[in-house]
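The protein record filed below.
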Amino acid sequence: MRLAFQFAMESDKISADGVEVTGFPDLVRRYRISSVPKTVVGESVEFVGAGPEAMLLEHVQKAADGGGLVTA
């Protein structure tokens, strides 16, 4: 989450939210969360697990380009 928040602070085109899903079962269903951390970028790119900054940047760029589902 820290990286997502850093990206959001650097660009006014990016926003980031961190959610404790145990209190939001509707989000668990909507985003099909079965394990955490799960990152959803722009409703079109999602991945499970933590990774380096370069990986998050790659997924953000794919979402900006209209990319599809990415799993890592």
User: Anything to note?
Assistant: The chain has a mean pLDDT of 84. The longest strand covers residues 38-41. The longest helix spans residues 53-64. The beta strands are 38-41, 45-48.
